[in-house]
Amino acid sequence: MGILHDDVVIITQAEKEGDPSVITINCPDKTGLGCDLCRIILFFGLSIVRGDVSTDGKWCYIVFWVIGSPETRWGLLKKRLVGTCPSCSSASGISFYRSELQPPKPPDVFLLKFCCYDRRGLLHDVTRVLCELELTIKKVKVSTTPDEKVMDLFFITDTRELLHTDKRKEEVSDYLKAVTGDAMISCEIEMVGPEITACSQGSSFLPSAITEDIFDLEMPAELPSGSLTSRSVSVTMDNTLSPGHTLVQIICKDHKGLLYDIMRTLKDYNIQISYGRFTIKQRRHCEIDLFIVQADGKKIVDPSKQNALRSRLQLELLRPLRVAIVNRGPDTELLVANPVELSGKGRPLVFYDITLAFKMLNTGVFSAKIGRHLIGDREWEVYRVLIDEGDGLSVPRNKIEEQVWKMLMGWE
C-alpha cells in the first residue's frame, strides 16, 4: 500500500492554547528538503520547539512540534508544505521524487506602486498585508515627499501565481485600502520584465567599512547588544558513534528560525541528514543531534571539511543576520543583511520584522531599499533603511539596533 497524497502532510492542532501542534511529513526525500520545510514554517510565523527527522535516502519521515497563534492559517500551511515535498502519486501510491533536469521557471515579477499619506507604522502595516496575501517582496524602494506623502515601489512575486488576474489585483488593493482607509491615494500593479527589475536594483556599491564589518565571515570579537557570545554555541563532530554517519551535536540558545539556519547551512554544503533530533529545554536551551552524510553517502572524515562545516555552523548560529547602524552623511541608516541560500532564496519576513521594530519604537522610515550584493563568495540580501529624523531622533541609535536585532531573533 502506498501513501495517499493527502497524507503526505498531517497537521494535528493543539487542543489547548500554548500547547504545540504536530506537523507530520511522510514523503520521498531529497537533499535540502528540511531547509525548504523549515523556511515555510518560519514564513508562517511558527516556532519549532521539537523535531525528529529520519530517512533512508529515498523516503523520509519528519515530525515538527510547533507553537502557532490563533491567526495561523493551518490549511494554507499544509498546502504549502505539500507543494514543496517531492512529488507523490496518489494513484500509484509510492513514486520517488523526480530529479529535475531543468531548474524551475522563475516566478513572474510584478511592480506594486502604492501612494498614500504618511503616518507612523504605515510601512509595517503595508508589509503585513503583503505577507498575509503571500506576496513575496523581492525589492522595495520607499520614499517620502516633502508634503508628507509616501511612494512605495514593491517588486513582488505571488506564491499563488494569480497576480496577473484582475481579481487578484483587486484583492490586494482592497486589503491595502482596508488597512490605510482614506489615506490611500492610489494602488497600481503591473507585470515587469527582467530589464526593469535589473534597473530597479540601483547602485550595488556598499562602503568598504560596511562590508568589512557586517559581512565579515570570521568569528566576531563583539556582537550586537543582547546577542550571543562565542561560548553560547557549541558544535562538536564525532565519527566514532556510527559506522556510516558523522554525528553533529549542537548546543545553543534558541532564536527565531534556528532550525532553518542549521538546515540551510547543511543544504548549501550538500549535506544530507539521515537522522536528527531537536529539542528545546528550559530557558530556551537547545540541543540538536544530527547524523549526516556527504553527497556521496559517506561520513565526513577529512579534518579540513569537518572544521569548515563546524566553523560555518557556529558562525551562522551566532550571527544568522547582520545588523548595524551607520552614518550616511548627516543622516542615520540601518543596515540588515542575511546570507542568501545557494538556491537563491532569502530569509523570509526580514523586512516585516524590521518595520515592526520601527513601529514599536514609534520611529519613522524616510526611505528603504532591498538589494542583493555579492560579497566575497556569497550573495547577501541587504536592507537599507534611512531613518526619519525630521524632528530629531528621539530614540537612541543603539536602542534602534538592539530592538531590530531582538525582533529578528524572536527575543522580544
TrEMBL record:
InterPro entries from the UniProt entry: ACR1-12 (IPR040217), ACR2/9/10_N (IPR056816), ACT-like_dom_sf (IPR045865), ACT_ACR9/10_C (IPR056805), ACT_dom (IPR002912)
Residue ranges constituting the ACT domain according to the UniProt record: 111-184, 247-328
Keywords: Repeat
Transmembrane domains' residue ranges: none
PROSITE patterns assigned to the protein according to its UniProt record, in alphabetical order: ACT
Pfam family, one: ACR10_N
Its biological purpose: Binds amino acids.
PANTHER family on file: ACT DOMAIN-CONTAINING PROTEIN ACR10 (PTHR31096:SF23), ACT DOMAIN-CONTAINING PROTEIN ACR4-RELATED (PTHR31096)
Protein's name according to its UniProt entry: ACT domain-containing protein ACR
